[in-house]
Amino acid sequence: MGYVRLFYRGFAFVLLTILCTVVALLGSFVGGHIWALRTQQFWSRILLAIFGVKTVIHGNPTNAGLIMANHQSYIDIWLIPRYVLSVFVAKAEVKRMPLVGWGATVVDTVHVDRSSKESRKATKDMIADRLRNGRSVIIFPEGTTGSGEDLLPFKPGMFHVAAEEGFPLIPVTIFYEDTDMAWVGNDNMGSHFARNFKRASTIAHIHFGEPVKGADGELLMQEVEGRMKTRLQRFNVNRINL
């Protein structure tokens, strides 16, 4: 039964991603960028349902600000757009990925090459531009996926941009009740995907914190990191009771 479920879900993911990418691309010519974001939100909702990911929301989602979220799994990219119309900041390699990369481009994802100083500067400018135009932007400040037991060190760049521009930062904490949902280390993505989605369902918690603003980038980073750490610790302590 597990392998039948996995085949069905994999097929549905490919088909739905292709369909939504085409719809977002064509619809954006008429409905503008908001059409593409609405299509992304629909894509997220349907995929979460198909893959049996039950979400529990904490706090109040907002559509205005720079969303700083911890990162554990590829499922994270479904969770936040499920509740907030937003664009991502992603590694340059994502743009070259089949299906996912095409969809990311349509919804105006900001791609960054961290090995290039010019790319990092251009990325900051593009993020600032999107925020000025009322779009929320999602950043995973850890830069990669972690186990969910604690946070990895944050990349400080965008905290300083937020301080300079006066952008509100929204701490978002993601937590999976099953620790195996975290994709970390040398775990192969294909085997990780298969192992987790043969099962019927999983439960994900997502906490939206209150917006944070300030004029000091370092202090902003410490504040956001502290709030997320506290929330993650609470989730982990109460894991057995969730």
Which sequence of SSEs, written as H and E, runs from N to C?
HHEEHEHHEHEHEHEH
What's the tally of helices? 9
Mean pLDDT: 85
- Give the C-alpha Rg: 17 Å
User: Spatial order of the strands in the main sheet?
Assistant: 1-7-6-2-5-3-4
Q: What's the level 1 CATH class?
A: Alpha Beta
Describe the structure.
This protein has 242 residues and is of the alpha/beta class. The chain has a single domain, classed as 3-Layer(aba) Sandwich (Glycerol-3-phosphate (1)-acyltransferase), CATH 3.40.1130. Helix content is 50%, strand content 16%. Strands 1-7-6-2-5-3-4 form a seven-stranded mixed sheet, sandwiched between helices. Helix 1 (2-31) runs antiparallel to helix 2, helix 2 (33-50) crosses helix 3 and helix 7 crosses helix 9. The longest helix has 30 residues, at 2-31. The mean pLDDT is 85.
